[in-house]
UniProtKB/TrEMBL annotation:
This is Prephenate dehydrogenase. Signal peptide: none annotated. It comes from Halorubrum xinjiangense. One of its GO terms (biological process) is tyrosine biosynthetic process. GO terms for molecular function: NAD+ binding; prephenate dehydrogenase (NAD+) activity. Keywords: Oxidoreductase. InterPro entries: 6-PGluconate_DH-like_C_sf, NAD(P)-bd_dom_sf, Preph/Arog_dehydrog.
């Protein structure tokens, strides 16, 4: 399988390494708006670079670009895909809509690795919009890397991201920004765990996290919940506490 990875950042390199390590006989090419980044990704790998504005064609084109750039990237690169086009951006509704519009005759799928590449393997959500041998080979390669690939829908995925990404990141960053520095001995198991999670969240790229906040609602709900807790009297706090320790069904959003 001849694979073109568009976007030679961490996730694009993970795609290339995953395909190269699996028994799918893949050859990999990188394209990136910064040729130096593409060259760096190809160096040390059995990979080559191609021009982002070129006309090379490939069995499968994988878009590893920012979420907001996916629709335009689909339009630009669909003509260079012979069998399949997929993305690993993290937003699925708009990505798949663009694929249906610009690549109606190709295999199509949207993958979302639910981890940063330094923390592989992990769970990978996927919506297979049009199945076929190329998409099956890529899914098999991801699974061969020890990842758990699970199917979802675009709507279910994007709604979940409001909680597990936008809301979770907002809550953790808000806690870190509001927290005063304390001696390590003062940390409780809860605050120590939060501090560790905050370290994980802040080790990435601000641009990536900003993109998540723009793409998904969730931060506003966290802010509303924090305000409700801050303003609650004893009775209201007890009610909020009981809702928070429910089994999930009771943790509905605040009215």
């Amino acid at each position: 399988m001849d694979l073109l990875v568009v976007g030679a950042g961490e996730i694009g390199r993970w795609v290339a390494d995953t395909a190269d390590a699996a028994p799918v006989d893949a050859s990999v090419a990188f394209a990136d708006r910064d040729p130096a980044v593409a060259a760096d990704a190809a160096a040390g790998r059995d990979a080559r670079t191609v021009d982002v504005d070129g006309d090379t064609t490939h069995d499968l084109v994988c878009l590893a670009v920012p979420m907001s750039a996916v629709p335009a990237a689909v339009e630009a690169y669909a003509p260079r895909a012979e069998r399949a086009i997929v993305d690993v951006s993290g937003e699925m509704t708009d990505a798949l809509a663009a694929m249906r519009e610009h690549a109606p005759d190709l295999e199509r799928a949207s993958y979302h690795p639910l981890f940063a590449p330094p923390r592989v393997p992990g769970n990978v959500a996927v919506v297979v919009d049009e199945d076929g041998p190329a998409v099956e080979s890529l899914s098999a390669a991801i699974e061969a890397g020890g990842n758990d690939v699970f199917e979802t829908t675009a709507a279910e995925h994007d709604e979940a991201m409001e909680t597990v990404q936008a809301g979770a990141h907002a809550a953790v960053l808000a806690w870190r920004l509001a927290a005063d520095p304390v001696r390590e001995e003062f940390h409780t198991p809860v605050s120590a765990a939060l501090d560790e999670v905050a370290d994980t969240v802040t080790e990435g790229s601000p641009a990536v996290y900003a993109e998540i906040q723009r793409a998904f609602d969730g931060a506003e709900d966290v802010a509303d919940a924090a305000a409700a807790i801050a303003d609650a009297d004893d009775e209201a706090f007890a009610a909020l506490y009981e809702r928070a320790r429910g089994d999930g069904e009771g943790r509905d959003r605040l009215e």
